[in-house]
Amino acid sequence: MDTVNETGSSQAHAVCALEQVPDGGATAVDAMLADGEESLILLRRGEQVNGYLNICPHAGNRLDYAPGKFLLKNASLICAVHGAVFNQADGLCTGGPCRGQSLRAVPLRVVDGFICLDPAALP
Fold first, then answer.
1. How many domains, the chain?
2. Sign of the C-alpha dihedral computed for residues 92, 61, 40 and 10 taken in this order
3. pTM for the whole thing?
4. Consecutive 10-residue averages of pLDDT for the chain (123 residues)
5. Would you say 44 and 25 are in contact if contact means Cβ atoms under 8 Å apart?
């Protein structure tokens, strides 16, 4: 999926429709980034979406317990492998084996009802 950004000057690559991520929930999508295809975590609160690589900084495992299914509690995302606890808003680990480290953020924006990668994140 491709769509034009709000200025119409460059392409933003849509990874999924906003409605595909439940409000207050998360999902995983595969997207082509500068380093190749990666699994992304999309966390939604209303019209705001935060995106992170689906890689725990502790041991390099995916954070989902099943494809696209995440452990969420309050404003936290919990790694299904070793229990590291991350803030949904900024990706900072606040508990567990990688406390103080952060998930790698992926720049996103919502354009015309689609969650799009910021062109700076693309190859």
1. 1
2. positive
3. 0.87
4. 42 89 96 90 96 96 95 96 96 96 95 89 59
5. yes
